[in-house]
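User: Predict the complex with zinc ion.
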Amino acid sequence: MRIVIGSLSHESNSFNPKCMTLTDFSPIYGDDVLSFLARGGRSPLQGIYRIIQEYGAETLPTIYARATPGGLVSLEAYQAMKKGFLAELSKFEGVDGVCLHLHGSMAVEGIGDAEGDLLTEVRAVAGEKVPIVTSLDMHATITGTMMEKADAFVGFRTAPHIDTMETGERAAKLLMDSLKRGYRLTTCAVGLPLLVSGEMSESAKPPMTSLIKRMEELDREPNVLSSSLLLGFPWVDVSYNQGSALVVTKGDPDLAQKKALGLAEELWSKLDQFTFTTEAYPFEKSLEVALGARTGPVCIADCGDNPGAGGSQNIVYPLQVMLQQKVGNSLFGAIADQKAYEHCTTHKPGSTFTLTLGKLSTKSDAPGITVTATLKSVGKLGSMPAVAIRVDGIDVVISNDRVMMLDPKDLETLGLKPKEYRILVLKSGYLDPKYEAIASYGLLALTPGFTNQDFAALDYNKIGRPIHPLDQGFNYDPREYIFPTRYEKGERV
Ligand SMILES: [Zn+2]
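Assistant: Here is the predicted structure with zinc ion placed in the model:
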């Protein structure tokens, strides 16, 4: 059997005005994708690849491209990647199936729903009969076009996302089993009109713990193949923004619909439980709590400016508060500020100079703060060029571009000792497990930025209404939110 694989993923935040460029994605095509996969890793595409090989099928590689969450994807970048992807896709004839990993919440300047657009193209090339299965992020937004063009979707179940490769494996297994045994995959998705952040829906905490258990039970029911709760992505102002409950069955659209409606209802009954799963306060209060802790390091997630959800990562308001309060023995970072980074690299470690960095708010004309900095080190934070400076007893990391704070070891390569600080203020949403492991205590700081957790403070204009929590207490009837599917209700296949 011949199976097309590929992955193009991005989580796009429409409040961040800086569009993503082609350089942000560094796409690779064709056989380069196989060379990339041969190097290992735990990406969903890696899982897809592994399963297809296990089934003895031929893998037809197309594209691998991803970028750190950020603003909308520029039309130019998207069109270039789509063109490259379609050029690879059109090389293959006699394809038996397509298995992709897409994020599900990639939005393109002037287009919106990237996944719907891509799947439309894939369907046009592959024809009506070839099954298309896609793995998705847990924060995917299902659209009508996606449902009409693909046969099945499988979403991550964990947040933080640790089941990435396993989700790719599940998607590929769905596809390969259906091909091997000759049944059709029938999927139903039911929309959930809600905005919920990852920080309110960590999978190790209620209500996600019981909802995940429910999905595991569902997956064991006869003829149910897979179930997913896709929670959507709150920081994008598009008409189709919402979550969804999705069930894939073995050729039974009625069963898929019944189970998806049940799953949607079950989530909706727990709506009030979607609250912060970590203590969350305004920044000043979180600092006060951290200063009162007996042992360190206390990790404070500056979650209003989280690059992991598309924040600009340059808001220095929390640093200003830390400096005013003379917090000492703490770390703040990373601030993505190319100009400040470059300025620092013109100095020698140990030298002291005046530096203006970041912005005090999301306003385009917002000023930064000016400090007296001593350069500690020049190096990298993960793979991102970065420097560490010291300002009034606070170590500040400045990076050349946005970079997620995923591993305290990245700080060590800059000569910093993360475990020895009293407080780490990180540009992050929920803490990555590696930071969680060194933190004596974790806190969420509800800070300003493009990933502001106070949705009411954001300027939504296009989003469909009613939507929770912008609208409270409205009546939700899941039957009104059923997506049309490729195989109509009642059609036995
Ligand atoms: Zn996600």
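The chain has two domains: 2-275, 280-452.
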